Amino acid sequence: MMELDNQQQPNPMKVMTDEQLETLRKQIAIYATICERLVEMHKTLTSQQDLAAELQNRFSLGFLSFCLTLVLKQLSFHLSLWSGVDKGGRMVSLYADPRTPSKQKIKDLTEELSQHGQIAEQNICNWFQNRRARSKRKQHCGVGSSNNKNGEGEVETETETLNEKRKRPESLFVVLPDGNNNNVIGTTTTTSPRPEDLCFQSPEMSSDLHLLGVQSNPRDEHLVESYNLYDHVEDYDMSG
Amino acid sequence: MMELDNQQQPNPMKVMTDEQLETLRKQIAIYATICERLVEMHKTLTSQQDLAAELQNRFSLGFLSFCLTLVLKQLSFHLSLWSGVDKGGRMVSLYADPRTPSKQKIKDLTEELSQHGQIAEQNICNWFQNRRARSKRKQHCGVGSSNNKNGEGEVETETETLNEKRKRPESLFVVLPDGNNNNVIGTTTTTSPRPEDLCFQSPEMSSDLHLLGVQSNPRDEHLVESYNLYDHVEDYDMSG
DNA sequence: ACCGTATGAATGAATG
DNA sequence: CATTCATTCATACGGT
To answer: Which Pfam family, giving just one, matches this sequence (chains A, B) (predicted)?
Structure first.
């Protein structure tokens, strides 16, 4: 189940709102923090070379992994959501015009559609009603939170929600450290996309550090540590 | 190519290429790997059975608590959604109410939740809707045959569905350690961290138990275990 | 590896 | 027109 059955689209793009991106950044930062802590722990532990059995009792490792698993799953879930594309409506292509059609128009449409199947004017009306309502609501919602930045597509509402049937292909990849597991993390690695392209990347992040998704704050040297760790990640199980 | 056009969202959207997504995945995968590794390592170390009270005091405990706190907060939060615990949090009661909350409430919820992750009113609406619908359906179906135990009857809908649903609180949004936060990457324009608003804030997260494991499902042993830990969470100092 | 469940989401329809 | 319900879909996850 590899990470993605990459769509055969000519130009597969995914969309994310700025907020989504931001949230993603935050979440990544959180993981970074967590990892940082783990790394710290690691250092401490290794330097001490001894540990409390008691710890084990109290903080069941299983639980810890469980937690991490949750978190990771969540992140991956979000990612999947964000990377998805909207699904379109079925009848849409016929009704591309967002504005309320005249009665006559409705009639026409009904006729037209009748040729292809059972349909009543009522259906058409409903459809338009719902469409308007939802359009409106969507707009409203969006306004509430974002409104910054460049407004590009906004009025469009759904004019063409059509064709794009849903696909939402990206399935996830993350793996959960469930105690032992070997995990397969999505193989990946092949691409090396230019980090510059990643929106969540901060310029000041050194080219590799950003893989940890964190801003390199001066005081975040731990992260650097974790970075090293990352270096070794490769020879973990990653490739399986 | 333009599949993005069908976004009826007013917000400006950004696009991610597959490569970008992949990189993102990679990042996440790395976290997963790191966490996994660390957990394993931790396990190994703990198997040595030596004691490190010192460690515990000065570090491990703090860290673990920190991690767990993050997660537990999430868990408790979500559980609260389902269990309707009224610990003085305003949100809780809102969630507890099976009926549809007013618009304003939804707005509030959205706001509050936004502090912890990307969320839109639509999500809230969906959540409530689905909840109602499924509650009802379950009720219908279930009534016919089972409902043994304490026959809550049917009106309760909520109460019983609760028991069924709440076992797996997996959808969480991660919380940022905003307290000291090194803040993240990027600009984070929207965030206005008002800790007061954090629903999790309530330390008295009720008696703990049902927050964590809830019905202590066999599967949730981890949670139960963590319960002990949770006791200590309070004195973790993550800022240090 | 398949199948069932749970859940978020989209949509047609009904109600006020 | 606004809100809600009922249905359906697609995916994620867990168990076998």
So the answer is: Homeodomain
